[in-house]
């Protein structure tokens, strides 16, 4: 029995409609836990309703993270939430699925057959980048020590373009590394290959190339980077490795541009990271990091876990987490196969290029990325657009229709350029994209007819307007 009839305090029974229960009046606990339990169906409704005004994730074009998975995948993931990814001995078959994913990804990234690749799942690209960064730091230190270099008083450094994602700044702060930024500029919207080696010296633990700059979606030219690094390494005291941050491109490029050389085919690329929850098409909470060969992952970073009488190496910053995302990733690999991923990504790219063309044809915007690498469209207002509104105003108009399309400044050196970015994901179909174009057009029309109230010059954020 859920509640007895003679319960003096709780008159509701399981038959009472949710919005007729007294429990529905419960004060939502904010600072301390409530005194009594309430019915699960009422708790469910209350929490669900609290989240109702958060917007529709599918219309959020600000994020790379997946907002759609097939019902079967969602069911499978919901049914495996209790599995702990770190507990290799209790869940050996889950571990087997993780290992298969590592093998599949290593194969997509052309891990050389004559080397012993090693990799692991992570919570996302941030954890994957931390692990790759630590491996570069430890490996550099081990080698520098052998050469008698001062590894205690002098700080090592990491070289990356100023279009880096914040996880690299975190890595450098947490692990006490100097972050050397190669600036982006109007002529170099990705890593400047002519300049990058100026930032490298004997204390460089590695260079990070980005396959899909977060701000614009552009790819660093990893092949050219490999060439200049190769030249440098010929005479270097300590050879410099390349890590590729393929958060978005790592599981996009292999399917769409298989001939693009950015991965382990390149000699100096020793590690790669990606987010399974971006173009790996899994809900948030999964990333992958891979080393081309065991020699690039110092032994002291690997911890041995007993596993069915054998030993299972693990490397993670986290310990316990659900394995359901790993299982979701394996489901996708099994379900889609290479051709399925290719079809999904190709259509997403077509949608991005359609959007870029439509937006260009509006005549007001300069396109920075037209979706021809990653399916990301970003643009700024033309200098001579001659309009009284800003991209922030347009973002506000789109928000009224439920679309989240943020406007923000480009990184250091280009911070005066304010752009708007549309991240196309698998679940943004062509019909939805047409609707977005119509909403942009009607937003512009409304803004052109509005009397825009300019705030002071310092505040370039959202502007108010009156009709
Ligand atoms: C280039 C790059 N690196 C790392 C990350 C961090 O990814 P995650 O959210 O999976 O931790 C992102 C996220 O957008 C990114 O674009």
From TrEMBL:
What is catalysed by this protein? L-glutamate + H(+) = 4-aminobutanoate + CO2
Cite the entry's keywords alphabetically.
Decarboxylase, Lyase, Pyridoxal phosphate
Record's keyword annotation contains Transmembrane helix: no
* Lyase as UniProt keyword: yes
Question: Its Enzyme Commission number?
Answer: 4.1.1.15
Give one Pfam family, short name only. Pyridoxal_deC
Source species, please? Answer: Clostridium sardiniense (Clostridium absonum)
Q: Which GO terms describe its molecular function?
A: glutamate decarboxylase activity
In the record, the note on similarity to other proteins reads:
Belongs to the group II decarboxylase family.
According to the record, the signal peptide region is: none
Q: What is the lineage of its organism?
A: Bacteria, Bacillati, Bacillota, Clostridia, Eubacteriales
What cofactors does this protein use?
pyridoxal 5'-phosphate
Q: Tell me the NCBIfam families matching this sequence.
A: Glu-decarb-GAD (TIGR01788)
Name the record gives this protein:
Glutamate decarboxylase
InterPro entries per record: Glutamate_decarboxylase, PyrdxlP-dep_de-COase, PyrdxlP-dep_Trfase, PyrdxlP-dep_Trfase_major
